[in-house]
Amino acid sequence: TQVAPLRVLICDEMNPGNLEHAGFEIDYGGNLPREETLRRLPGYDALITRSRTKVDRELLEAAGERLKVVGRGGVGVDNIDLEACSRRGILVLNAPESNNVSAAELALAHLMAAARGLTRSDRKTRAGEWDRKFLGVELKDKTLGIVGLGRIGSIVADRAQGLRLNVVAFDPYVPENKFERLGITRATTLDDLLAQVDFLTVHTPLTEETQGMIGARELALLKPGAIVVNAARGGIVEEGALVDALSAGHLFGAGVDVFVDEPPAPDHVFLGAPNLGITAHLGANTREAQERVGAEIVGRVLAALQGDVSKGA
Ligand code: MLT
C-alpha cells in the first residue's frame, strides 16, 4: 500500500526553493488570506509562516489534530503562541541564522539614512525643494549603543567597527568574554549605556522584558541629537515616546523597520513624525537571506516530520 504524503502548507510569502521532496506534498500559498489558511489547515501536518501570520489559539483550533510542526521562516517567534503549541504537542521551529546579516545591514542602513537625512532629502527633492542646508552627522568616532548582543547585534557591532564607531553594548545574558572577543565595551545597565551613546540600536527579541524597554524615560537619558534605530520588533522602542522625542527635537533622527501592528493604520503616529525613516519590515528581505531562510526552514520542518514518522507517532 502506498503511504500518504506528509503535507506542508506555506502560508506567507518566501522563497521556499525546491518543493519536490519524496514523501512530502508542499503547497506554497504565498501570502494566503487568513480565512483561507484557517480553512485549508486541517489537511496539513505542518505549517510554515513568516511574521505576517499569527499562529494563535484560533488558528490552532482551526488546524485540528493533524498539525504537528510549525516552522517560522525567520528568527522571531513572537507571532506564535508557544504555550498553546506546546500544550497541543506541536513542535515550533525557526531559522535562527539565515537572515542575520541582512537584518544587521538594514539596521546600519537606517542609522546612515538618519545621520544624513536621506529620506527627508528624497522627499524634499521630489517635491521640488532643493534643500542643501541640511547638515548631517558623521559616524566615525561616535559611540554606537547596541541593546542585545545576540547573533544580529554581534554582526552590527562588527560592521560598525569597520565604520570606525566605538561600540558599547548592553546584554545581561551574554558572558563577559564575548564582549572582550568582539572588542566591545560592556554597559552594566541599560541606563549606563543610554547615557554614553550617540546612536542606539536594539537587537532583542520581543518579550515581556523587552516590550517598551526604550520608553520616554530611556529616550530622555540619551544625549540630545542622538539617533535611534529599531529594526528588531515593534514596541521595543515605544512608538508614542519615539515620536515625542523626535517632535521635541531631542533626537536628531530615527529609523524603524517594525511596528507594533503591521501593517500600520493609515493614521499611525510614525507616518507624520519628523526625521523618521520608515521601512516595511524588510530586515530579512534580501535575495540571499530569503534563499537561505526558505531552504533552512523547509529542511528543518521536513526533518522534524520525518523524525515524527520514524518514531511511529
Ligand atoms: C525575523 O524574525 O527573522 C523576521 O521578522 C523575518 C521576517 O521578515 O519574516
Task: Write a short abstract of this structure.
This protein is α/β, with parallel strands linked by helices and 313 residues long.
What are the main properties of this structure?
alpha/beta; Rossmann fold; seven-stranded parallel beta sheet; 35% helix; binds D-malate
Query: Which CATH class of the largest domain applies here?
Result: Alpha Beta
In whole angstroms, how far apart are the ends? 19 Å
Structural class: alpha/beta
Biggest sheet strand order reads: 8-7-6-9-10-11-12
Q: CATH homologous superfamily of the largest domain - what is it? A: NAD(P)-binding Rossmann-like Domain
CATH fold category name of the largest domain = Rossmann fold
Could you describe the 3D structure shown?
With 313 residues, the protein is α/β, with parallel strands linked by helices. The protein has two domains: 6-98 and 288-310, Rossmann fold, CATH 3.40.50; 100-278, Rossmann fold (3-Layer(aba) Sandwich). The chain has eleven helices and twelve strands. It has helices spanning 34-40, 57-63, 82-87, 100-116, 118-126, 151-162, 176-182, 190-196, 216-221, 239-247, 287-310; strands at residues 6-10, 24-28, 46-49, 69-72, 91-94, 143-147, 166-170, 185-186, 199-202, 226-230, 251-256, 276-278. Strands 8-7-6-9-10-11-12 form a seven-stranded parallel sheet, with helices on both faces. α9 (216-221) links the parallel β9 (199-202) and β10 (226-230). α1 runs parallel beside α2 (57-63) and α4 (100-116) packs across α6. The longest helix has 24 residues, at 287-310. The relative contact order is 0.14. It binds D-malate. D-malate is lined by residues 50-51, 74-76, 99, 281, 283-284. D-malate binds at residues 50-51, 74-76, 99, 281, 283-284. It catalyses: (R)-2-hydroxyglutarate + NAD(+) = 2-oxoglutarate + NADH + H(+); (2R)-3-phosphoglycerate + NAD(+) = 3-phosphooxypyruvate + NADH + H(+). Belongs to the D-isomer specific 2-hydroxyacid dehydrogenase family.
